[in-house]
Amino acid sequence: MITATIDRVPQNTDAAVNECIRRRAEENVARLAGVGPQAIDRRLAELDQEWDIERWVETLAPSLTLAGMTLGLTVSRKWFVLPFLVQSFFLQHAIEGWCPPIPVLRRLGVRTAAEIDEERNALKALRGDYRDIRGRDRSNAERAFEAARR
Description:
This protein is mainly alpha-helical. The protein has helices at 8-11, 15-33, 37-49, 53-74, 81-96, 101-107, 113-127, 138-149. It contains eight helices and no strands.
């Protein structure tokens, strides 16, 4: 089944794992709520460096494919089955949001871009980035995008 891009990984993740990831983000925000803007700035910088699940999968798939091709060329042709399997699973991930590394990565706490952005936006709201964004005129819309880009 083809699911919406934003939902596909969480829908294919155990509910307890999703809850653990959500709770950890909420704990991060709660911990930083009373600490001050410098701590929030540091955490936002950390979030900018955090790899999301897509980046992990996009790195693992070609790495394993190249390893299988190299071993197929240098050791045994039987290794060519590895790139075939990896790319099959990569296609499955693109369509359904699941492939064998996903459950492992999720249990390790690897989040989707949307989950990272949710924590980022909560921290920005705490910091007051969205405080002066009201109304519907163009200048407010521009301020909203400016605040979101910070």
